[in-house]
Amino acid sequence: MGLIESANGGTLFLDEVGELSPSMQTKLLRVIQEKQIRRVGDNNIKDVDVRIISATNKDLEAAVEAGDFRQDLYYRLNVIELKIPPLRNRGEDILPLARCFLSDFNEKLGRKITGFNYKTADLLLNYDWPGNIRQLANTIERAVVLSPGPQIMPEDLPEEFHQNITKPSINNGIKPLNTIEKDYIVSVLETLNNNKALTAKKLGMSLATLYRKLKEYDELQNFD
After folding, report:
1. For the residues 174-193, what does the mean pLDDT come to?
2. Is 50 left (phi over 0), alpha (psi -120 to 50) or beta?
3. What is the mean pLDDT of residues 80-102?
4. For residue 92, what pLDDT band results from cuts at 50, 70 and 90?
5. What's the alpha-carbon Rg for the chain, to the nearest Å?
6. Distance CA 11, CA 222 (A)
7. DSSP 3-state assignment of 212?
């Protein structure tokens, strides 16, 4: 019995559907349209009723235009679309997800780590997360394995977290300090999804000071 038949009457989750080969795309389309399957080497046709949830990190519209993904399959799958922003744009989700992974790996690995040191939490929040959720899960698993406990400390994180400080460049001239400050504050605000209270806390300033600076930068209206 294959995966589709096993999911009969339930839900089948297809991860990285954008990586399907052309022949597999054709087979999947046939299943969705006809609601039937035939086991490998079998002559009998079986009816299946499966709800399909698929995920991809590819731009499927661009893949359709490039001829890499079937247009008819795309529209069959794209009945309800949920776009999830990258983790770097969802700063408020990082620590709750990290705690969830910590609980899971504590149980799986038999550890009793209680949480994250505040400096570790800052490193997690300020990291760019190019690998998104998978990278976060791997990072927490690694920390749980290496940490002597009872908390995850900064040294339990990979080296790239400690190099996540942007070095100033003067190749195109030296910028005034107020310009650098403005760019950094606006960048942090965007990273934290316009959460002014969290931005002020992370920058070590009062909320009133943040509002005053944004007003000075004439940026306040952009974040209301």
Report:
1. 76
2. beta
3. 90
4. confident
5. 24
6. 42
7. helix
CB atoms within 10 A of CB 7: 16
Q: Which among 133, 185, 139 is positioned nearest to 160, based on CA atoms?
A: 139
What is the DSSP-derived secondary structure letter of residue 147?
-
Asked if residue 107 lies in contact with residue 136, where contact means CB atoms within 8 angstroms, the answer is no
Residue pointed to by tokens 């969290």: 198
Taking the alpha carbons of 164, 100, 115, 153 in that order, is the dihedral positive or negative? negative
Interior/surface letters 161-192, b for 16+ CB within 10 angstroms, e for the rest:
beeeeeeeeeeeeeeeeeeeebeebbebbebb
Nearest CA-CA partner of 49 in 30, 37, 35: 35
CA distance 14 to 16: 7
Question: Measured between alpha carbons, how far is residue 40 from residues 2, 151, 187, 216 in Å?
Answer: 9, 51, 54, 69
Q: What are the tokens at 124?
A: 């997690």
Distance CA 87, CA 94 (A): 7
What is the total residue count of the chain? 224
Instruction: Indicate the pLDDT class of residue 171, thresholds 50, 70 and 90.
Output: very low
CA angle (22, 27, 31) in 5-degree steps: 145
Amino acid at 146: L
The half-sphere exposure of 135 on its side-chain side, counting CA atoms within 13 A, is: 15
Beta bridge partners of 52: 12
Tokens of 185: 């504050």
pLDDT at 81 (0 to 100): 92
